[in-house]
Amino acid sequence: MADEHTPGHDEHSHDAIFLKVFLVLCGCTVLSFAADFLPNLHVGDGVVGTIVLAIAVAKALCVMLFFMHLKWEQNWKFVVLAPTVILSVGLCLALVPDIGLHYYSVQSTETREAATAAAAASAAAHADNGQAEKDGR
User: Fold this and answer.
1) Inter-axis angle of helices 9-35 and 45-62, to 10 degrees?
2) Residue 100 burial (CB count, 10 A)
3) Fewer Cβ close by (within 10 Å): the C or N end of the chain?
4) Which residues of the chain have pLDDT under 50?
5) What is the 3-state secondary structure of the chain?
6) Rounded (5°) CA angle 109-112-114
7) Where do the structural domains in the chain lie, given as residue ranges?
8) Contacts of 56 (CB under 8 A, 6+ apart)
9) What are phi and psi of 116, to 5 degrees?
10) Model confidence over 107-118: pLDDT tens digits?
11) Closest CA to 72 of 14, 134, 11
12) pLDDT, tens digit, for every residue of 85-105?
């Protein structure tokens, strides 16, 4: 019969796919590890961070598509994920005024240098006053 299912055929094809995905994930891990050595080649930290983040996204997509079987699901997965995406983006936008804009206070170099000079002048004046009191003035 033409409709008969040969046992083990689907398992074999899925095993081959999973092995390929595993090898891709191993390769991405090696690339991510190698990207950490790029600053030694005078590549900026922002570039290294972008490369590592892109590799991490690729690895996450491989895991989601193949190991979580989302590649073989119907299109309803987008309907299920839409509220999650909306809530996560909304949460990030809601936290921007509290965390993103307020958490880091930038102090200019001139202000820092002026504060250091003022502290040094104050310490010198204090030392001069102490010396004057010792001399009996």
Assistant:
1) 170
2) 11
3) N
4) 1-3
5) CCCCCCCCHHHHHHHHHHHHHHHHHHHHHHHHHHHCCHHHHCCCHHHHHHHHHHHHHHHHHHHHHHHCCHHHCCCHHHHHHHHHHHHHHHHHHHHHHHHHCCCCCCCCHHHHHHHHHHHHHHHHHHHHHHHHHHHCC
6) 105
7) 1-73
8) 32
9) -65, -40
10) 566 677 777 888
11) 14
12) 999 999 989 988 777 666 556
The residue behind tokens 């090696």 is 30
The residue count of the chain comes to 137
Q: What is the token pair recorded at 29?
A: 């891990």
Sole residue written with tokens 């790029």: 38
Q: What is the amino acid identity at position 127?
A: A
Q: Is 16 exposed, middle or buried (0-12, 13-18, 19+ CB in 10 A)?
A: exposed
